[in-house]
Amino acid sequence: MVVLNAGEPNDDTWYIDSGCSKHMTGNRNYLHDCKPIQTNQDVTFGNNMKAKIKGYGNITNGRFTIKKVAFVDDPKHNLISVSQLCDNNLEVLFTKQRSLIMDTKTKDVIVDSDRAGNMYPLDMDLIFAPTYISWLWQRRLSHLNFGYINKLIGDDLVRGLPLLKLDNETLCAACEKGKLSKSTHKSISESSVSEPLELLHIDLCGPAKTQTIQGKNYILVVVYGFSRFTWVFFLRLKSEAPEEMIKFIKQIELKLKRPVRRIRSDNGLEFKNNTLDSFLKDKGIEHNFSALSTPQQNGVVERRNRTLCEAARSMLIFADLPQYFWEEAIDTTRDKSQVFKQSFRKLENG
C-alpha cells in the first residue's frame, strides 16, 4: 500500500517509501532494458485506486543499479521500495535529517539524501554520495587535484560538474603512487610575455621505459608562453625532434599570422644542431638555453611535463592498464587540462 502527500509532484524526484512493495515509476525514460509483461499485474494505492503494470526495467546511476522497477500506468510519483532494497543486500537508514542507502557488506554510503517535510525524496541528478562525487570527478578529469576542480566549479567551466565544494581528506591511492617526485627547486622568476608567439617553452622527455603500441619513445612538449596552452608530440627517435619543431613553428605562424620571436629549451643535442639552428637563424627566432643541470631555468615546460606524466601514471595505475598505454594517457591528460587553462581560441585572438 502506498500513501503519498497531496501536492504537485516533481517528476525528477524519487521517494523512499517503507510501505511500498515495489519500485515504480510512470516515466519510461528512467528505465533501462524495460521489458513488457504478458500477464495482468497491477498495484493498489492508499486510496484503493489501482494502476496497471506495463513492464519492468532497471534504473542506474553508474555506481549501482536498482533492478525490477515497475513501469506503471498512472502514478504521479516515482517510488523506491525499502523492502526491495533490503532484498538486494542494501540497508536503509532514516534519521531526523536524512536518509542513507548503504551497501550491507562494505557499509559504503551509496545514496545520501536530505529529508523534506515528512518525506524522504531522492533527486536522481544528485543521487551520488558526496564523497563518491569527489572521486568520480577527480578521475574524469585525469586525477586533477581538488583545488583545481573547485575552481572549475566556481567558474562554471565544465558542463555537468555538480555545484558542490568537493573535498576529500584521503589521498587517492593511484595519485600517491603516480605523483611521487623529488623535492622541488626554488622557483626562478620568469620574464613576462605580453603578446602571442613571443615565447615558446620546449622540452623533450625520454626515452620512456616502455615503448607505446605505436612504437613511440619520446615526448616533445611545447608550452605557449602567452597563455600556457600546451602541445604534445610523440616521437620514435630523439633525432625526430628538430624536424618536428620546424614543422610546428611553420604551422603555428601560418595559423596565427604572427612570427615566433623566441624559443626556450635546455642544452639537449636535439635542440643544438645545424638543422634547427639554420632554420631559426633564417626566421630571425632567438633561441634561449637554460644552464647545464639547471632544469628550473626552463621551469614552465618542466612543470608541465611533470603534471602530464604524473597524471598519466595515476590514470594507468587506477585503471590497472599496461604501461604501453602511456601515450593515450598523456594525450587524454593534455586535453582535459586545457579546460582550466586558456583555450586555443584565446590564443588565436591574442
TrEMBL record:
Gene3D superfamilies: Ribonuclease H-like superfamily/Ribonuclease H (3.30.420.10). The keyword Protease applies. Residues 192-350 form the Integrase catalytic domain. The keyword Hydrolase applies. It comes from the Eukaryota. Coiled coil: none annotated. GO terms for biological process: DNA integration; proteolysis. One of its GO terms (molecular function) is peptidase activity. Keywords: Hydrolase, Protease. This is Integrase catalytic domain-containing protein. It comes from Lactuca sativa.
